[in-house]
Specification:
This is Serine/threonine protein kinase. One of its GO terms (molecular function) is protein serine/threonine kinase activity. It comes from Aureimonas endophytica. The structure is a single chain. This protein is 39% helix and 20% strand. It has 354 residues and is α+β, with helices and mostly antiparallel strands. The strands form 4 sheets. A 5-stranded antiparallel beta sheet has the order 1-2-3-5-4. A 3-stranded antiparallel beta sheet has the order 6-8-9. Strands 11-12-13 form a 3-stranded mixed beta sheet, sandwiched between helices. Helix 3 packs antiparallel against helix 4. The longest helix has 22 residues.
Length: 354
């Protein structure tokens, strides 16, 4: 195995993005390069009983990133130490936030990137998750999270099978966001799930879900799916039905390490004439499930189509407010987001203990 890189200077953390039983993901910078954003998968944070598997997943990611060094729009492996691994940060929004409806150019670029990945002998194996596909600020596709990736020296039958499943999962994303651009051959591939995939779905996947979600309390939603799919949806439905609410965004944020897990942050815009303080107090006392943090704002940020800018609000929820100006765009949105950030309710993860 090639020599693993060493981080050129100490990592300075800013915020935690995710926690589960296998690792903690933090974002920060290098002490000697403060302008350079770095992510850190801290495997040493994992529960002692899960650490062997946590390191097995981390080693898969290390091998994959080493094989992909130099490939544009994939993370660069910056360093490995006894606690975990460090990767370059890729600026972008995951598909469920970017919502690339009708954006055929994005999916052409995503297919190109996936073919480049496969030419390096890497099968990603986790592309059903929209969180692992990013749209960069210039509209390009990027790939992250290589914990389940497999590296092949030769294009074996297994590699070709896994590469085919990677492509099928990309096409499922394309079907969700850009169905009209699917070609006849892509539609045929979507309709013809491989025999191993059929066996997996009918036999092993229910067991996998039972173990990861039931025993490990971990899911395919980067540690957030279970609570967001149940409590988050119920909270959003209640806000939709509230006549005092003009708009909302319900987003996850990481609890501090001492508590662990994922919290729910609700940004709420009040209807004209509604007293914000009264609405906030009522929502805080709502029946369970209810948000851990409620912030009633003067106005929610929206794009030209009127869609709430969850990408910007997510930065406030996770205390990553220093990146807002770079993504906000026009001055009015920047000013609004600074106002929202000043009143944020999550102040827990400004510093990490390493």
């Amino acid at each position: 195995m090639a020599t693993r890189p060493t981080l050129p200077s100490p990592f300075v953390p800013r915020a935690v993005l995710k926690r589960d039983v296998f690792s903690e993901i933090a974002v920060g910078s290098l002490r000697d390069e403060p302008e350079r954003t770095v992510t850190y998968r801290r495997v040493a944070h994992s529960a002692p009983w899960s650490r062997p598997l946590a390191w097995a997943l981390a080693k898969r990611e290390i091998r994959a990133l080493a094989a992909l060094q130099g490939l544009e729009n994939t993370p660069e492996l910056l360093g490995v130490d006894a606690s975990g691994l460090y990767r370059s940060w890729i600026e972008g929004a995951p598909l469920h936030v970017a919502k690339p409806f009708g954006n055929a150019a994005y999916f052409r670029d995503a297919k190109r990137l996936l073919h480049a990945l496969h030419r390096r002998g890497v099968a990603h194996n986790d592309l059903a998750k929209p969180q692992n596909w990013l749209m960069t600020p210039d509209g390009r596709a990027a790939l992250i999270d290589m914990q389940l990736a497999t590296v092949f020296k030769k294009r074996t039958a297994l590699f070709r099978l896994l590469a085919r499943e990677d492509l099928r999962h990309l096409l499922k994303q394309k079907r969700t966001w850009c169905r009209a651009a699917l070609t006849p051959s892509e539609k045929r591939l979507l309709a013809s799930r491989s025999l191993p995939a059929q066996i997996w779905m009918k036999t092993f996947k229910p067991v996998y879900n039972g173990v990861t979600r039931g025993i490990f309390r971990w899911s395919d939603g980067e540690g957030t799916r279970d609570r967001m799919d149940s409590e988050g949806q119920a909270i959003a439905a209640r806000l939709d039905a509230d006549p005092a609410v003009a708009g909302h965004a319900v987003l996850p944020f990481p609890y501090p390490k001492s508590r662990g897990g994922i919290g729910i942050y609700a940004f709420v815009e009040a209807m004209p004439g509604v007293v914000p303080a009264d609405l906030e107090a009522r929502l805080r006392k709502a029946p369970s499930p209810r948000p851990d943090i409620v912030q009633v704002v003067r106005q929610l940020p929206r794009d030209a189509a009127g869609t709430v800018r969850e990408d910007l609000l997510r930065l406030v929820a996770i205390n990553h407010v220093e990146e807002i100006d770079g993504l906000a765009g026009e001055a009015a949105t920047r000013d609004l987001m600074r106002e929202i950030a000043a009143g944020r309710g999550n102040l827990t993860d400004r510093r990490l203990k390493l």
